[in-house]
Amino acid sequence: MYRDAFKVNYFLKGGGRVKTTIFPGTINGLLNLLLTTSLYYLFVRLGLTWFSFPPGNINLLSLSSGIGLVMCLLWGVRAFPFIVMATFAAHFPLIVENTFHHNSLYIIVASLIMGGESVFGMLLMRRFLPYGVSRPHHLLKFLLLLCGLVPALSALLIGTNLLLNGYIEAEKFIDLYITLLIAHALGILLIYQVFTGFAHSPAVQLSELNKLWSGAAIIGLIVILAATVYGPLIFLLLPVMVMMAIYLKLVFINLFSSLCFVIVISIMAFDNSVFLTNNYQFTLTGLIAYIFSSALAVFVIAIQQNQINLTMASRQAWKKAAERDPLTCLSNRRAFMPRLKTEHARAVRTGRSYCLVIWDIDDFKLINDTYGHDYGDVVLKKLADILRDNCRDIDFPARIGGEEFAVILPECSSEEGELALERFRSEVESTRFIAPDGKLLQITISIGIASFKRSYKSEMALMSDADKALYQAKSQGKNQIHVF
Predict the structure, then answer these.
(1) pTM of full prediction above 0.85
(2) Is 333-483 a domain of CATH 3.30.70.270?
(3) What percent of the chain has pLDDT over 90?
(4) Which among 18, 58, 66 has a CA at the least distance from the CA of 40?
């Protein structure tokens, strides 16, 4: 399906209107609707030929039910006439071939039923799942309504239509009803999970593709062995799919599992005994039901795993935001103190030295009082950029107070630290700042340095000495470095 059609913010809460990026009123919207209608027509034809049993309008898999639901989710009831016309067009060869008695009336009714099924599913989604199936607790509603109630009603109407037009005998109605129910439910599940996966639009990563190809090779081997050697091997699909659902992104596992189960059902439609053996008691309908339950289980686990991944990513984002100064984009005191404790413990363990630097801006209060806090923020950001440019990759700069900054210099002696900080101080002194009134300002900083010694019992003692060194630099005239 056209990729943009999946970029949907499903529904506006309360109003129940579909909010899409594509509207049939535009040329692009109409083209996308026609393209999706063509895809719907193709899946109906596949259902009548590839997945079908005699008579030719009874099939094992109704993917068109899922496509119709997606069309209505994207375009609302405006998709109804397109679904009806596509269904009728797909059945039209049956009228020409005169395969069935009274087939014109049957096909018209069947087309209306398929269109009504899609609209009914859309209305249930709007009412009970306004944001789609994005969380694990949504799955029960989806199972009961979209994979239960909707297929149950459509299967009942289609079966009744077949019965009244003389295509089936009354005693076979129940078996036919169960087959249609599972076929429509499976079609909705397989297509909708692909739709849900693409709605997330993840970035494709090479590691994901490697996992996908590995899983595809294993599943392909299972299907081949099950089809040629021992049919019940097909039951190994579920555990392999579950493992893939844990490690792959939602879009990949949903798309892959749908394709896999479609291929399996295609093989079954070609030879309905290929996965059954004489010493293994299992009906064809039971096998289709197993495939449905397997697809549902994979979808459940994929949704759950996706929710876990989103939660972890959200926590990481919040943690990163909580440990970063929003103005300078440096780490803040909350992130700095644990890092200092870790570095101090490493120095105690290995005996390797490190330096702690604390510096602040000379007369910063005067700058704020004269030119305002907005200009003070400009100065802070500029100095943070200069600091970042003068730090090594292993250094850890942070803003720990209003105009107070700190830097951890691992693997650094006091002499090396003083030399590096002198370059930084000199660059700040030579930088000219343009004030709001057009004047050029020279801003200076004072720096205090303390170097690790084994006599320090904790990192707080080292920080206290670095703070004392900063105070000495201030008291001795500012714009200088003092080593404790």
Answers:
(1) no
(2) yes
(3) 5
(4) 66
